[in-house]
């Protein structure tokens, strides 16, 4: 079983990306490594296994890469949370604030049934804006959000606070 340090050893660190002063943790080096990727998905799925998840919801775009295989491992369905204009049928949407401006996520109106047990799965919990918006979008439909699981958590950026009341699971912390 991979330890947190094993995962950190395969994640590429890129200084000053996307702007000066930011240290970017690039998971593409993890997901291209079959053993590391398998271990990550297995550990995330195991952290959710006892929660009887019906649906995993993954926000665009890396949430697809992490969330879909976790859903498969749990025997759950997978729902995509997309940027506006990307889904072909009727949608629910939720707009949320960013540091400069706003953003929006959408899911199909028939993607989640009221009362279904939903887990948000994404690659990264940083400031928590996208995660909180995804949780609120699922709750707007009437889903019960039972947990949010992330490959990586940047602990100093306040993401946990934005998800207060939601059980949070993470594998790697920086």
How would you describe this protein?
- With 174 residues, this protein is an alpha/beta fold.
- The chain contains six helices and nine strands.
- The chain has helices at 4-10, 28-31, 34-48, 62-74, 129-141, 159-162, and strands at residues 12-15, 23-26, 55-59, 77-81, 91-98, 101-108, 117-125, 144-153, 168-173.
- It has a five-stranded parallel sheet with strand order 4-3-7-8-9, sandwiched between helices. A two-stranded antiparallel sheet has the order 1-2.
- Strand 8 (144-153), helix 6 and strand 9 form a beta-alpha-beta unit.
- Helix 3 packs across helix 4.
- The model has no long low-confidence stretch (mean pLDDT 95).
How far apart lie the N and C ends? Answer: 20 Å
**Helix share, percent:** 25-40%
**Number of H- or I-type helical stretches:** 6
Could you give the count of β-strands? 9
Task: Give the C-alpha Rg.
Answer: 16 Å
Shape: globular
Structural class: alpha/beta
What summary fits the major beta sheet?
5 strands, parallel
Mean pLDDT: 95
Strands of the widest sheet, in order across it, are 4-3-7-8-9
Which regions contain 5 or more consecutive residues with pLDDT less than 50?
none
Q: Percent of residues in beta strands?
A: 25-35%
The helix-strand sequence is: HEEHHEHEEEEHEHE
